């Protein structure tokens, strides 16, 4: 009789121990697969959502103009009256090698203008920001507006401080550079520079101030799950030699920290469960060896050598471990399909079958099982034959 047949028959005879052995490893594999798949998909989802909560790259002209603090960052080279960036530069940015990492591109044009008070007596200098509202709203999801976002060229959005300073209210009209505009919305206080700005359509702003295709700066939100941000900066700089490309590193680091914390938590839980499973396997195999003194004595009496005994025990564990790895993989995938939509709050996420993860699961189970059973197998092989024979 071949050794693997002996191992199979032993597993069949000791069904309860076999089930317990498989369960111990199955628990570790299923937990690992579930946490790995959930972590991977949730992290990607979180990274994509975080990328919409502010820019992590700024592109400004290289010049000796005025300094402007925007997004909490001091930006040099931005002038209110001049601009060396153009709308055509956006197409250049979209042509870089890592263009797929660029999630949102939000160009802006700033102009200093004088706006009259409601009573018509006196005027004040304010900054008008020309923006693409579709991109700006995606970039700044924390914005809350009283009224509506501008949908027409002759509509504007007032920052909270600007509206108080000018005593402007919703649906009132005001004149900008000699042209009449309707206040369609008032931005609720954000605590940022946006509170003091007047927002209008970018193309209308270029036309109103005779700055066709000109831009003051470009904000970019890049995906940062596997974000090669320095490489993106280098590629963008090569496309725009006349511009200064800056990565807002603190923004990137905060995003990556939030993402990696969940990964580390998942790895920690998986490691704890794996250690518990190793102890279960060790205890199970060691108890099995203690119960099989008579069987081992019979094997030795018919000429089995020590390495035969070791091989029989390790084959039993190998078969059980491989089964646990495969079954645990499918249970883990099923668990991930249930948990991922709950944690990400996104039902559109799909969990794809991964052959590499299946092989990893089976390999992990087999490796863990064999490692935990080496000592009990050596113990069985070192059993004194005379002691074994007495049990016959």
List keywords for this structure.
alpha+beta; 2 domains; 392 residues; two-stranded antiparallel sheet
Could you characterize what this model shows?
The chain has 392 residues and is of the alpha+beta class. It folds into two domains: 3-48 and 257-390, no CATH class; 56-147 and 198-247, no CATH class. 53% of the residues lie in helices and 19% in strands. The longest helix has 43 residues, at 249-291. Mean pLDDT is 80; it is low at 71-82.
- Count of helical stretches: 12
User: What percentage of the residues does DSSP assign to strands (E)?
Assistant: 15-25%
Number of domains: 2
Average pLDDT, all residues = 80
Amino- and carboxy-terminal Cα gap = 21 Å
**Largest sheet, if any?**
10 strands, mixed
Helix content: 40-55%
Q: Roughly how many Å is the radius of gyration?
A: 34 Å
Q: Would you tell me the structural class of the helices and strands? A: alpha+beta
User: What is the molecular shape?
Assistant: rod-shaped
Unreliable segments of 5+ consecutive residues: 71-82
Query: How many strands?
Result: 14
Tell me the series of helices and strands, N- to C-terminal. HHEEEEHEEHEEHEEEHEEHEHHHHH
